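Moderator note: this is an archived Q&A kept for reference. The question asked for a predicted structure of one protein chain; the sequence and the answer are reproduced below.
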Amino acid sequence: MNSDSVAWRGLIAEAAAIVLSILAAFSIDAWWDFRGELKEEAEVLVGLRAEFVEVADRLDGWATFNAVKADLVSRALAEDSRSLPDGAADSLISSMPYVNVLDRGGGSLEALLSSGRLELIRDRELRESLARWPDRLEDIHTNDLSVRGYVWGSVLPYMANRGVPDGVCSGTVPFCVHKEGLPESYHEMIADPSFRALLTHLGAAFAIIAADHRDARDTARALVRRIDDLLPP
């Protein structure tokens, strides 16, 4: 065999070894990068899960609270105030100023979206759901503010002109109850057509935001379940 042929074969073998070593290095780097991305994704998912669990619990409480208020309004409109169960009218009047307003953002999701790193989440369906979530919160926030504005701007001034409520709850009691029975001024106000018109709009508003909160709660819980499916065991 001629020496030139041997030399060329040696060069080819060396070149092949160099190429293979480079490819192996790239493969190792890519593997480490992928492992790093998986770890980072898992950390992001853990933060998102905690956030959506907290939001779902908060929405559940608000949905229940607003549904109760919608029911109290409905009963006040359907029955004579004197026939309402003890404390029902007091609960309605005393809880009137309390209208929850959902925060629009913050936390892990806002940080993820503002950093432009949503692509860290490999699951396309989850990415799309996360991208839509802030708009969902904005809609709920806007509706909550509208109801609060109606209560504070129309309902409470009307009640104040009637001298209602006529006292302040003591201690940490959330709703005042007249132990000797509802004052006549309360009965007159609840029977007044103008106040009943205000209550009609308010009852519908409470029912709407309660449904909004329930729907968003269910979406948040579905996102938690989806995240659980993606997290490593």
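Archived answer notes: The radius of gyration is 31 Å.
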